[in-house]
Amino acid sequence: MSDPESYLTDVYQRFVVVVSGPSGAGKSSFVKTLLGKGPDFEYSVSATTRPRRPHETEGRDYFFLTQEEFQRRVEAGDFVEHARVHGEWYGTLRSQIDGALARGKNVLLDIDVQGGKAVRRVYPGGVFIFILPPSMEALEARLRHRATDPDERIRLRLENARREIPMVREYGYSIVNDDFEEASRRAVAIVWAERSRTERREPIAAGS
Q1: Which pLDDT does position 206 carry in this prediction?
Q2: Domain 4-44+105-200, CATH 3.40.50.300 — does that match?
Q3: For a 10 Å CB count at each end of the chain, is N or C smaller?
């Protein structure tokens, strides 16, 4: 039988949190909230071949790669997952996740549903949260309000959203982003509850 004293310390197994949802649902805002209020989070920066937007910074928002460089890293096995989304390639670098876990951090990922499925295979103990818009009309309004994409790209994002939303059934949690303040409180509560799960406890070995 384990020594009860070995459990009386706030030590737990670090874990991966995946935030997914259709483009325009508000994933980036949830990620910012969790980074500020979640338990010991480090953001996993994804790689992409899409053009950098004016407000974005290399290495903070994305690693912006050429098509050739992205393919080279795919062939080298550098990605946990990669997929073509909205006509561009996106991927999660294994080094980003494993490096953060080794530093004692929980890892936060903002990735699409295809990527979420791949990450679940590699990190089955992760926490998977799907962000939903209150309606398709609200989603379209948000995409147009951003004024970052032409009509053709917006139509593509809406078509993809209709395919992605049913994938919510594969996620452990879902949150409708209607009232952001309330929805973000729910997201923070989820990750703190997951941190407290008994199976994540790590008893301290005798003599430690």
Answers
A1: 40
A2: yes
A3: N
